[in-house]
Amino acid sequence: MWYAGNTGSDVGVQDEVVQSQRSSRTTVSAATFPVGLAVASDGNVYWAESGKGALGYAFSGGTGETSVGGSPNGIVSGPDGNLWYADSSQSQIVQFSPASKTVINRYLIPSMNADPIGIVVGNDGALWFSETKANKVGRITVSGAITEYPIPSAAGGVQGIAVAPDGSIWLTEALAGKIARLVY
User: Fold this and answer.
1) What is the per-residue burial (b if ≥16 Cβ within 10 Å, else e) of 57-96?
2) In this predicted structure, what is the pLDDT of residue 17?
3) Is the Cα torsion angle 89, 184, 143, 112 positive or negative in sign?
4) Distance between CA atoms of 53 and 36, rounded to whole angstroms?
5) Is the pLDDT of residue 31 over 60?
6) Is 110-184 a CATH 2.40.10.500 domain?
7) Residue with more model confidence, 155 or 66
8) For domain 1-108, is the CATH number 3.30.930.10?
9) What is the C-alpha separation between 173 and 156, in angstroms, rounded?
10) Cβ atoms of 52 and 33 closer than 8 Å
11) Is residue 91 within 8 Å of 111, Cβ to Cβ?
């Protein structure tokens, strides 16, 4: 089990789910603020370093880091074999190649200052993301087409996002103290 400890500024792996037993741990700088984890098509584990504008990664020979700018948050391995992450400071969804360790595309979210945080792959093969300040949920195809859906609560502060087995999208409305379900 991999984890990102953004208050302890560490990323690690724990082989057994036993409290306080860790088989491997990598400490990153305090300014890094690691959030989100994804296993990429290359088999490496990546995490977003929100406070540093970078993506960190662990591979069999150690760890590395690639500067990407902005404030990367949620990160997921996409259906196209690339990594996708939410850049909250730039209000973008970013496509990143694990093979070349470079940004392929940056897609601007139509709502200004959307503050995307979470991102998941839906059962439809598209990527779904939360828009905390825009009070919406977004959907982006691997070709970059974005559609936005308003959420029911005013100023709900959408953050967490997950996909259910039936394909529905679940999200947390942190400021409204609610969870919501989007069926598409």
Assistant:
1) bbeeeeeebbebebbbbbbbbbebebbbbbbbebbbbbbb
2) 52
3) negative
4) 13
5) no
6) yes
7) 66
8) no
9) 5
10) yes
11) yes
Domain boundaries, the chain: 1-108, 110-184
Residue carrying the six token digits 């392929």:
104
Give the pLDDT mean for 9-35. 57
Name the token pair of 43.
Answer: 């088999």
Q: How many CB atoms lie within 10 A of CB 26?
A: 14
- Looking at residue 58, what is its pLDDT? 81
Cα 182 to Cα 71: distance, rounded to the nearest angstrom: 27
Helix (H, G, I), strand (E, B) or coil at 101: coil
* DSSP sequence for 32-52: --EEEEEE-TTS-EEEEETTT
State whether the Cα torsion 176-126-93-30 is positive or negative: positive
Higher pLDDT, 36 or 29: 36
Closest by CA position to 26, among listed 64, 54, 67:
64
